[in-house]
Design goal:
Elements: E1 11-16, E2 36-37, E3 40-41, H1 42-51, E4 57-62, H2 66-73, E5 81-86, H3 92-99, E6 109-113, E7 116-118, H4 122-131, E8 136-143, E9 151-154, E10 160-164, E11 172-181, H5 197-205, E12 211-216, E13 220-222, H6 226-232
Parallel strand pairs: 1-4, 1-6, 4-5, 8-12
Antiparallel strand pairs: 2-3, 6-11, 7-13, 8-11, 9-10
Helix pairs in contact: 3-5
């Protein structure tokens, strides 16, 4: 419970619609979020993390091989109410969120990438978002080598100032793929049009003065490339249930 809001009343959207072309050499018979890490689908690990913070209503935004995900999760988690929002064609990260507008209930709502995990304390993150009266808040992971990621610049109040494309090595904050969004942001996204949160919507929000970054020391793991996927397989930190 945070103020008068319980996390069980907050919708969680997980973006699972991408084809995962870079991972095809290792995972070709299923959508990328279903790639097995420690003998379980990566998406299971993400859902367990969400559940451990009390969230109950999850919308899986599917696209490529949507039927695979829907069949697997139809009756998989008894402690979660899992719904599906299927794209008819590729819509990008923002388009996938817009596509789920009709079944979204809560304001704000939580959005997560289906191919990465950063074990952010989601209750603290939610409290941060509410206290800042933010339109949007992004979890920012502090990593030692940001050369493979674009970095994010924030001011002393944690307002997001700008997004910086991939550059040389060095420590910086990077987008951890975990967001709280106000429903009003949906008006910025055109229906049935391929749109990116990261490239199209977030740069606009950076001009609003109500866009914040929640910093965390938790590690960011993603399965976007064969090297990254192989590096996390077998990691003890990705076994079983973890949460607060």
């Amino acid at each position: 419970m945070i103020g008068n809001v319980n996390t069980r009343d907050i919708d969680v959207l997980i973006l699972c619609g991408g084809k995962g072309k870079r991972l095809k050499a290792l995972v070709s018979d299923r959508p990328k979020p279903m790639a097995e890490v420690n003998k379980k689908p990566f998406l299971d690990i993400l859902l367990e993390h969400i559940s451990s913070f009390g969230f109950k209503r999850v919308i899986l935004c599917t696209g490529y091989m949507a039927g695979y995900i829907e069949t697997y999760y139809k009756n998989k988690f008894s402690d979660l109410n899992i719904l599906f929002s299927a794209e008819k064609g590729p819509l990008g990260t923002a388009g996938g969120v817009k596509n789920a507008e009709g079944i979204l209930k809560s304001n704000p709502f939580l959005v997560m990438n289906g191919d990465s995990i950063c074990r952010v304390d989601l209750k603290k993150f939610f409290s941060f978002h509410i206290n800042k009266k933010a339109l949007s808040s992004i979890a920012l992971a502090d990593i030692n080598d940001a050369s493979d990621y674009g970095s994010v610049s924030i001011d002393k109040e944690n307002r997001i100032l700008s997004f910086i494309e991939k550059h040389g090595s060095g420590s910086s904050y990077v987008n951890a793929g975990v967001y709280f969004l106000d429903k009003s942001i949906l008006s910025l996204i055109r229906k049935n049009e391929k749109t990116s949160l990261e490239k199209d919507i977030f740069p606009m929000l950076a001009k609003s003065n109500r866009f914040y970054g929640f910093t965390t020391k938790e590690k960011l793991f993603d399965i976007g490339t064969p090297d990254r996927f192989n590096s996390i397989c077998g990691m003890e930190s990705l076994r079983g249930r973890h949460g607060k």
